[in-house]
Design brief:
single chain, 377 residues, alpha/beta, CBS-domain, 2 domains, four-stranded mixed beta sheet, three-stranded mixed beta sheet, 12 helices, 10 strands
Length: 377
Amino acid sequence: MFGKRMKLFKLLGFEVRIDLSWLVIAVLVTWSLAKGAFPYWYPNLSPLTYWIMGVVGALGLFASIVAHEFCHSLVARKVGIPMKGITLFIFGGVAEMGDEPPTARAEFMMAVVGPLSSLVIGGIFYLVYRGGEAGAWNTPVNAVTYYLFYINIILAGFNLLPAFPLDGGRMLRAILWGAKDNLRWATRVSSSIGAAFGLGLLFLGVLRFVGGDVIGGVWMFLIGMFLRNAAQMSYQQLLVRTALEGEPVRRFMTADPVTAPDYITVAELVENYIYKYHHKMFPVMEGEKLVGCITTRQVKEIPREAWGRETIREAASPCSDENTISPATDAIKALAMMNQSGVSRLLVVENGRLVGLVTLKDLLDFFSLKVELEEQD
């Protein structure tokens, strides 16, 4: 779901990150408010005033989304769902779970608090707006507070749609899960509904675009595309977790991986290893001792003229928790480590000794075969 992310701050033990795609929505929201909504609702103000209102409105939306996701995270922590943090991305935000909810009740509790929090936030802004009207505050302040009331009510309503992975879809999944005691079936049904909602939004977006509402049509089309893809991806992620959970890394690893001696040059590594074996990462060995690993990404960062004189020992990354794993570790953790660090291979180390190598392809090949042979509702 996510691309490049950067950390914003940490609060109550939760790390808040921003996906770079969110900068796109921040600019578009500001522009839409400054050039469209506020001039239409409140004419005859200066262009600078509209832009200030747009920036403040976008920041208020940002704060509302963070508060919404914090409520999810706090309830999730209380009901025993591990949380990895909060990430803002192009269509809003998400509280990232480290695992599936332990029970249907836990999921329902975590999901329902999202729309409720948006309703509460919207209610607070409405009271501020009414107070501003009674106190004869200036138009820009009242306009922004009314917008924040309005947008939070819209967010609550949208999130209540029974379209997984929206909050309403998670509530639906929790109800189905509790009724049949089958998480996989409940996810398949709720994600299918989510995908159908996404397809409907795609269709409506096209109709609005053709009807002349270009901006509204494009937004509806993009949201529909995102919702459809997210619903389908959520079900696939559950299938992967179900297939790999409980399987130790040693079941997938290559027990005798190709290694490179630490004394060879980068040029020799490229010619005799990368071009020969077509791997993107190699363990670096000093005799029988593992001293690190080197990737094609690291090689590309070395000036070409230095390839013939720099050894791979000098260029290699040291072994760390980011590139090594124990053979007894659950395969799900290996997959999570690969996803977090953006690598497709991990060194399998036991008592400081290299015993194998596990790749993303190994895990996905096993998943594909297991799903094919054991497919069931």
